[in-house]
Amino acid sequence: MPKNRLQETVFTIMMVLVMVYAMICYNIALETGGMKNFVFKAALGEFPIMIVAGFILDTFITGPLAKKCTFKIVTPGKDRPIAIILAISVFSIWFMCPMMSFIATILFNGGFSSQIFATFCELVVRNFPMAFFWQLFVAGPLVRFIFGKIFREN
Q1: 24: which DSSP letter?
Q2: From the record, what ranges are coiled-coil (predicted)?
Q3: Domain containing 69: what range?
C-alpha cells in the first residue's frame, strides 16, 4: 500500500488506468451486442477524458471519502490489513461508480436530455456489478501486485 504522496499518486494512476479501460470496454461491449476485438480499440476514444475524470474524482473526492468511511469501521493495527484494503475498495466503488456513470451519461449517452436521470440510473445499475467484481478480483489484486514490485521494501 502507498506510504507517501508520490506512491499514492502512482497507485491512483495505475488503478484508474486499469479500472477505466475495463469499464469502457464493458460498456462498449454491452452497447454493441457483446465483446469483439474492435472493442479494445474503440475504448481508446473515450479513454483520455475518462482517465482524467477518474483521476480527479479519486484524488480529491472518492479516495478521501473512502478512507474516511473505512476508518470509521476498521482500525489499523487492530484489524487485519485485508479488511482495510477491502473496505477502501468497496467504498471507492460505491462512490466512484455513480460519479463516473454520471460523467459517461453526459458525455457519451445523450447528455442533458429529458432522459438523463433514466439513462444515469441504467448506467449505474449495469456498471456497479462489473466495477465491484473487477475491482475486487482483478484490478485491485493486479495493481497491488505490480505496485508492490515497483515500490519494494528492503
Answers
A1: H
A2: none
A3: 5-150
